[in-house]
């Protein structure tokens, strides 16, 4: 029986752990060849092993979103040259940044948050736009956060990046509305990830949904039959 994403190529950022890793594994289960990117080679290899155990295939593309801007700029053309196509982008990478009053944000922390949580989104859109537009059913999904709509004290450094990312993605969705490409954002809510654990160290992760519980919702937004466009979809 044919898999719904058989023959497609998916790029997943933040694929070494958490929602990125779980989504990559789910996309591979659905038949996609996954290009995995994150900073940690060893962790990417573990995800690759999990995908291969399912009978899927993956390609590893280690990079640091904060430092490897030029390398990130070449991701789209490199994938298109190697595989002849790019059908799916899932941008799950992000950095928590320091929880601090806005007036106390330090320049170094600001620069890191901008690079990872905002600039990387712009670079990904720029590099992936041509092959995704050319795909038979291009799909892009960006992970967002409820903080965008409801700012909280001390979360400004993290929240502004997510807000900017959401604005970029929704603007892009307007620009490609007449194409076959569909762009959406997904708010997973609280999930038992490393980032969540850093932010809420006193919280019992066993009380939260696990990444593998949420990944099918993200992968569903990547299917050819997904018609929603320019929406912020919340796990609920």
Q: In words, what does this structure look like?
A:
Helices cover 44% and strands 13% of the residues. It is built from eight helices and seven strands, in the order βαβαβααβαβαβααβ. α1 packs parallel to α2. The mean pLDDT is 94.
What does the main sheet amount to?
7 strands, parallel
User: Strand-residue fraction?
Assistant: 5-15%
* Number of DSSP-assigned strands: 7
Helix content: 40-55%
Characterize the overall form: globular
> How is the largest sheet built, in terms of strand order?
3-2-1-4-5-6-7
> What is the gyration radius calculated from CA atoms?
17 Å
Return the structural class: alpha/beta
**Low-pLDDT runs:** none
Q: Provide mean pLDDT, rounded.
A: 94
Number of helices: 8
The separation of the N and C termini measures 32 Å
Q: Helix-strand pattern, N to C?
A: EHEHEHHEHEHEHHE
Characterize this entry briefly.
InterPro entries: NAD(P)-bd_dom_sf (IPR036291), SDR_fam (IPR002347). Helix content is 44%, strand content 13%. With 236 residues, the protein is of the alpha/beta class.
Observed structural traits:
8 helices, 236 residues, alpha/beta, seven-stranded parallel sheet, single chain
Task: Detail the topology: elements first, then pairings.
Blueprint: E1 9-13, H1 18-29, E2 33-37, H2 41-53, E3 58-60, H3 69-73, H4 75-83, E4 88-91, H5 107-134, E5 139-143, H6 156-175, E6 182-187, H7 194-199, H8 211-220, E7 232-234
Parallel strand pairs: 1-2, 1-4, 2-3, 4-5, 5-6, 6-7
Helix pairs in contact: 1-2, 1-8, 4-5, 5-6
């Amino acid at each position: 029986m044919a898999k719904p994403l058989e023959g497609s190529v998916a790029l997943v950022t933040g694929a070494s752990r958490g929602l990125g890793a779980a989504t990559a594994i789910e996309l591979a289960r659905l038949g996609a060849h996954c290009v995995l990117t994150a900073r940690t080679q060893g962790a990417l290899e573990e995800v690759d092993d999990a995908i291969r155990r399912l009978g899927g295939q993956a390609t590893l593309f280690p990079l640091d979103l904060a430092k490897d801007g030029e390398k990130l700029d070449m991701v789209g053309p490199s994938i298109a040259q190697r595989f002849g196509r790019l059908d799916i982008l899932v941008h799950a990478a992000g950095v928590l940044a320091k929880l601090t009053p806005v007036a106390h944000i330090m320049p170094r922390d600001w620069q890191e948050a901008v690079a990872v949580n905002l600039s990387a989104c712009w670079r990904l859109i720029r590099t992936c736009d041509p092959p995704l537009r050319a795909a038979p059913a291009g799909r892009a999904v960006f992970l967002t956060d409820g903080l965008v709509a409801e700012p909280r004290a001390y979360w400004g450094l993290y929240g502004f990046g997510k807000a900017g990312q959401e604005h970029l993605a929704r603007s892009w969705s307007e620009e490609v509305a007449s194409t076959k490409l569909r762009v959406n954002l997904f708010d997973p809510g609280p999930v038992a990830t490393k980032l969540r654990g850093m932010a809420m160290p006193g919280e019992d992760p066993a009380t939260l949904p696990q990444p593998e519980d949420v990944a099918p919702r993200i992968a569903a937004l990547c299917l050819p039959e997904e018609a929603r466009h320019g929406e912020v979809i919340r796990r609920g």
